[in-house]
């Protein structure tokens, strides 16, 4: 079922899954951003996106009740829009020219990083409905298109004066919803095969361990350190996307 993959490729994927899941447990996002490029070295990009969505769905079920309870109301609004927009992203993935896809991903990732660097919103700032809806729309499209729902969502929460616990739980709620939408959409539109869940099952123990370690670390760092770390992860994703674009 995973024919064509060498032991070295599988081992590298397991190591990448462990590290990416640690980032997810600590930051609340970043697993797909870090994992999809590595998986793309061993399997076709479309398969890498679906595998990442499967892993996001499986790990999203861990502690789901606690995460939902700790999330902000906007997380559910963004999730609804993102779920509806995910099939559009999957369709774009199936028809888009790879060069154009890399350009769009790089622009969105870099733009999101620049947003994080801007001054924070005033205290008690309430996002507008268009801002919330637009975040959900971009997140859904990127879920289906690149397996990366995070770039639009992270600035939405990181630029506001809210507790890290609230921001982290809200992002995890959204990513659980987008992962489910990504898996279902890829299956319905014929982009997915039986290979992706099989590969995800192999990687999931490493994801489970990495997420547990990251969650443990989350409770031991300051607000400033957490925001710096999450901003750094988004920055690395933006740099990686630009470098990949320049190499083509």
Secondary-structure blueprint of this entry?
Elements: H1 7-27, H2 31-39, H3 45-60, H4 64-70, H5 73-95, H6 98-117, H7 129-146, H8 150-158, H9 164-188, H10 195-218, H11 223-246
Describe the protein:
By secondary structure, this protein is an all-alpha fold. It has one domain. It contains eleven helices and no strands. Helix 2 runs antiparallel to helix 3, helix 6 (98-117) runs antiparallel to helix 11 and helix 8 (150-158) runs antiparallel to helix 11. It is globular, with a radius of gyration of 17 Å. It starts with 6 loop residues before the first helix and ends with a helix.
Question: Which keywords apply here?
Answer:
single chain; about 250 residues; about 0% strand; mainly alpha
Q: From the alpha-carbon coordinates, what is the Rg to the nearest angstrom?
A: 17 Å
The helix/strand series, from N terminus to C terminus, equals: HHHHHHHHHHH
Return the average pLDDT rounded to an integer. Answer: 85
Total beta strands = 0
Low-confidence region ranges: none
The total number of structural domains is 1
First-last Cα distance: 31 Å
- Helix run count: 11
Q: Which structural class should the secondary elements be placed in? A: mainly alpha
Mass-distribution shape: globular
For the largest beta-sheet, the strand count, sense and barrel status come to: none
- Percentage beta strand: under 5%
Helix content: over 70%
